Amino acid sequence: MTEIAPPEDQSFLEPGPLTDGQISLVLARRQKPDPVRGWCRAYYFEIRLAASNAPIGQISFRAGRSHTLDYYSGHIGYGIHEPARGRHFAEKAVRLLLPFIRRHAYSVIWITCNPDNLASRRTCERLGAEFVEVVPLPPDNDMYLSGERYKCRYRLAL
Predict the structure, then answer these.
(1) C-alpha to C-alpha distance for 53 and 83, rounded to whole angstroms
(2) 39 pLDDT exceeds 70?
């Protein structure tokens, strides 16, 4: 499958309601692009239980194309609070976000995680993402500077 790069339009789209009846994604903030810092436009959501509106984690979508995104940080980042882990909420949140990502004209996105993060690796596999490789972080990368050394790269065709 040929990858289609999204347009360079930097405007923000409105996500609309993102819920499956069990969880909801609530837009917490938007990040404007900052080329000097290497940041692209991004959306940050809280993951909440739909019944109680209690926050159980977060998920982000970075809407850009760069070597750093494709190899190290990925287009999606997620985290689930400890008490809510083990119930596939990260997978459900990504699935809720995919139609919104498609609206940004992506045909492929990259998800990365640390090699020892088995829960995140299983999430990628349940999503149908293809494991591509483990890559070393460059020494000038922020994640390297915080102690990380490698990233697993998963390719998710949309």
Answers:
(1) 15
(2) yes
Instruction: Please report which helix (H) or strand (E) contains residue 109, including its range.
Output: strand 108-113
Q: Per residue in 116-128, pLDDT tens?
A: 999 999 999 999 9
Written as six digits, the tokens of 142 are 């922020």
- pLDDT computed for residue 11 by the predictor: 85
Using CA atoms, how far apart are residues 45 and 58, in angstroms rounded to an integer? Answer: 6
Strand partners, 59: 45, 78
Q: CA-to-CA distance for 93 and 74, rounded, in angstroms? A: 16
Read off the pLDDT band of 10 (50, 70, 90). low
The alpha carbon of 27 is separated from its chain's Cα centroid by a whole number of angstroms, namely 14
The rounded distance, in Å, linking the Cα atoms of 96 and 105 is: 16
Domain spanning 18-157: CATH 3.40.630.30: yes
Q: How far is CA 3 from the centre of its chain?
A: 18
Nearest to 65 by CA among 104, 91, 30, 121: 104
The helix or strand, by DSSP H or E, that contains position 91, with its residue range, turns out to be helix 89-102
Give the C-alpha separation, 126 to 118, whole Å.
12
Q: Which runs of consecutive H residues, i.e. helices, occur in the chain?
A: 67-68, 89-102, 118-126, 142-145
Cα 120 from Cα 94, distance rounded (Å): 12
